[in-house]
Write a structure and sequence with these properties.
Elements: H1 2-8, H2 14-29, H3 52-67, H4 71-85, H5 90-107, H6 111-129, H7 135-145, E1 149-151, H8 158-171, E2 176-180, H9 183-199, E3 204-207, H10 213-220, E4 224-228, H11 229-243, H12 249-257, E5 272-276, H13 278-282, E6 290-295, H14 303-312, E7 320-323, E8 328-331, H15 333-342, H16 354-370, E9 377-380, E10 383-388, E11 393-394, H17 404-411, E12 420-426, H18 428-433, E13 437-442, H19 449-456, E14 460-462, E15 470-479, H20 482-500, E16 505-508, H21 512-524, E17 530-532, H22 540-546, E18 553-556, H23 570-575, E19 578-582, H24 589-596, E20 605-613, H25 617-622, H26 624-633, E21 639-640, H27 642-680
Parallel strand pairs: 1-13, 1-14, 2-4, 2-5, 3-4, 5-13, 15-20, 16-18, 16-19, 17-18, 19-20
Antiparallel strand pairs: 6-12, 7-8, 9-10, 10-11, 15-21
Helix pairs in contact: 2-3, 4-6, 4-7, 5-6, 6-8, 6-9, 7-8, 8-9, 14-16, 14-17, 16-17, 20-21
The protein binds adenosine-5'-triphosphate.
Membrane topology: Peripheral membrane protein
GO biological process, one term: protein targeting
Subunit structure: Monomer and homodimer. Part of the essential Sec protein translocation apparatus which comprises SecA, SecYEG and auxiliary proteins SecDF-YajC and YidC.
């Protein structure tokens, strides 16, 4: 109604219309009762209410806002309505599902019909899954359907919450894409929620790595599609490449008419996106653009081997400077001369061009010094496979660009893949902004609320917990070296088992190599355990299914981080629930909170502790000077909280700043590239 009113104000100045939209957005999002102070920080509007017409408009919008029920009121009304559906027989409930779909097609997303749809979905979810949405979940569902970002604490049940906006929007005729961070979660969610989705006469599709195009096309034809950000963004790029210059609707139709489009598109367009673990996808993964490339045939004629040999003759400090935190290498003037001299007699053309040879030398140094086996990649089946630290998983079919991948392959003496040629590229920022309606949910959005608003237009609404959090956080213990840390971790597990019974324990590590080190320390201490990392990913479901049993000790990379639901059995709950041990803080505290969030879900008991070492990557990369001061001044170890936490905060603040700068840089570089390509006729 108000949109229509707005359009009638066509005569108003653009500025006033902007105010009206802003105000209407505020009114519509209805965020006040639940919004946390930090979430309210958005860009300050640049206008003032200084003209009579503006004032009238403001009063009108305030009245609209006051007249609207709060999210909680609405959620409670929905629960009441849903209990009425509980009395219906299965046949009558099915009839109600058909009817609501017709209404949504007719009325679109009006408040009354949306509430009715949510009430029905709650009841169907209760019958099919045994889970009826709590009022807080209904509130989060409303926020997302409205194009907002719901911050729900870890373990509060985001999986079934996403059903509410997904089914409602799909019934209203919008193709819905539900994004999550890995294939395991996409498959788990799609399969477990399918019965509810199908009861509404909708189909649910799944996009995972390794599918061929026809299978993907069939999945995208479904009403609701589950998949990862990487897979779906690459499919979008594939479609863009297939379309070439025929991007507009009209041009495409003409091209199809004349048979010029050889490959049918995979997707049905970008309509409504629901992004789970939104901060991971929108922020952490937005540092590097996604590049679709084709492998070029080509013999490397030994250039990579020569580059590695040359790099081994250069000396750090004299010829090059390394910055671990930013993974960058800079050649000094001396280094540049050395590269020119050492490459003088080499046969490959790359060495004759100054920029090319310096670039190659820097990449060779990176390959040997900055990219480490079992941290950045693993070698399996004779292949170098990149491990994504934030998810702990192998990124199948991905490679580093600019020859780096081939250099690492040469270093590891495996078959060298062909160099890849860029066909299309995009950043997540640009991809997600193309959706008509974008929404998200996560347990950890607080500190990036400003960036989410500025880059994606997403307003963060903090949803309260359904039950109070019972997790006891046992602080931060810091020891001087990694070796001592692993031993300390083993002692902690033994102590827990000795003093608190066979509580299940989850030990989180930052890399495959670290998980191996913890495993060795536990074996030495005689503690039975299982390891979950990129090498054991096929056993993931089974390991996670047993992780909540008494006596279970799981050592895991971030594979057991975000999204992983460890279900406790009754004995484990009675013993005090899951105990989480973090063995290395991440560059962002959000990932740490996700790991701690595996414990004490849904009002269960649980506890957590952080055990770190002064020589941890985070401290040496991002607060080296402070780490040196601590090292020389502290005489009594271990450090508990106090100074240990100060060092952590400083390092994480520096890391966050660096990564935010990287994201800006990526965006700017993409923008520049886009303009250059437009100038060159490529865009
Ligand atoms: N309405 C509900 N009633 C009962 N149990 C529920 C309800 N909603 C969710 N749960 C249970 O809560 C647990 C956590 O759910 P889920 O994994 O979806 O949480 P999450 O918010 O996605 O967690 P994370 O932030 O870690 O990804 C699951 O075991 C789920 O079955």
């Amino acid at each position: 109604m108000v949109e229509a009113t707005l359009s009638r104000w066509g005569a108003l100045s653009g500025k006033v219309r902007e105010k009206a939209r802003h105000f209407w957005h505020e009114a519509r999002s209805d965020a006040r009762p639940v919004i946390a102070p930090y979430a309210e920080r958005g860009p300050v509007p640049s206008w003032k209410w200084d003209r009579p017409l503006d004032l009238m408009l403001g009063r009108f919008m305030l009245a609209v806002q006051r007249g609207k029920p709060s999210l909680l009121d609405r959620a409670q009304r929905i629960v009441l309505r849903s209990t009425e559906f509980a009395d219906l027989s299965d046949e009558l409930l099915d009839a109600a599902c058909v009817e609501i779909r017709e209404r949504l097609m007719r009325e679109r997303l009006g408040e009354g019909v949306v509430d009715e749809a949510f009430a029905l979905i709650r009841e169907v979810s209760g019958r099919e899954l045994g889970l009826r949405h709590f009022p807080v979940q209904l509130m989060a569902g409303l926020v997302m359907l409205d194009g907002g970002l719901a911050e729900m604490a870890t373990g509060e049940g985001k999986t079934i919450t996403a059903l509410l906006p997904a089914i409602t929007a799909a019934m209203a005729g919008m193709p819905v894409h539900v994004f999550t961070v890995n294939d395991y979660l996409a498959e788990r969610d799609c399969n477990s929620l399918r019965p509810v989705i199908e009861r509404f006469g909708l189909r649910c599709g799944l996009i995972v790595n390794g599918q061929e195009n026809p299978e993907r096309r069939a999945a995208y034809a479904c009403h609701i599609v589950y998949g990862t950000n990487k897979e779906m963004t690459f499919d979008y790029l594939r479609d863009q490449t297939a379309l070439g210059k025929r991007r507009g609707q009209g041009r495409r139709l003409v091209a199809e008419l004349f048979g010029q489009v050889t490959q049918p598109l995979l997707m049905r367009g970008l309509h409504f996106a629901i992004v789970d673990e939104a901060d991971s996808i929108f922020i952490d993964e937005a540092r590097t653009p996604l590049i679709l490339s084709a492998e070029l045939p080509g013999d490397t004629d030994g250039v990579y081997l020569a580059a590695l040999e040359l790099a081994s003759m250069l000396e750090e400090g004299r010829d090059y400077i390394l910055t671990e935190g930013t993974r960058s290498v800079h050649l000094t003037a001396h280094g540049k001369d050395s590269v020119a001299q050492l490459s003088g007699g080499l046969p490959h053309t790359q060495w004759r061009i100054r920029l090319a040879r310096e670039e190659l030398a820097m990449r060779a140094i990176s390959a040997t010094r900055l990219f480490l086996r079992d941290r950045d990649y693993i070698v399996t089946d004779g292949k170098v496979q990149i491990v994504d630290e934030s998810t702990g998983r192998v990124m199948a079919d991905r490679s580093w660009e600019g020859g780096l991948h081939q250099l690492v392959e040469t270093k590891e003496a495996v078959d060298i893949s062909g160099v890849r040629n860029t066909m299309a590229r995009i950043t997540y920022q640009r991809f997600f902004r193309r959706y008509r309606r974008l929404s998200g949910m996560t347990g950890t959005a607080g500190e990036v609320a400003d960036e989410l608003w500025a880059d994606y237009g997403l307003k963060v609404v903090v949803i309260p917990r359904n039950r109070p959090n019972l997790r006891s956080d046992r602080g931060h213990v810091m020891v001087p070296t990694a070796q001592e840390k692993w031993a300390f971790v083993a002692t902690e597990v033994a102590q827990i088992h000795a003093q608190e019974g066979a509580r299940p324990v989850l030990i989180g590590t930052r890399s495959v190599a670290d998980s191996d080190s913890v495993s060795q320390a536990l074996t030495l201490a005689g503690i039975a355990h299982r390891v979950l990392n990129a090498r054991q990913d096929e056993q993931e479901a089974e390991i996670i299914a047993q992780a909540g049993e008494p006596g279970a000790v799981i050592v895991a990379t971030n594979m057991a981080g975000r999204g992983t639901d460890i279900i406790l059995n009754a004995t484990a709950k009675a013993l005090g629930g899951l105990h989480v041990i973090l063995t290395g803080f991440h560059d962002t505290a959000r990932i740490d909170r996700q790991l701690f969030g595996r414990a004490a879900r849904q009002g269960d008991p649980g506890s957590s502790i952080a055990i770190t070492a002064l020589d941890d990557q985070l401290y040496t990369d991002f607060a080296p000077r402070a780490a040196r001061i601590v090292s020389s001044s502290v005489k009594i170890w271990p450090l508990i909280d106090g100074k240990a936490n100060m060092l952590r905060r400083l390092a994480q603040r520096n890391a966050e700043k660096r990564h935010a700068a990287d994201r800006r840089q990526t965006e700017l570089a993409e923008e520049r590239l886009r303009k250059t390509m437009a100038f060159g006729g490529g865009e």
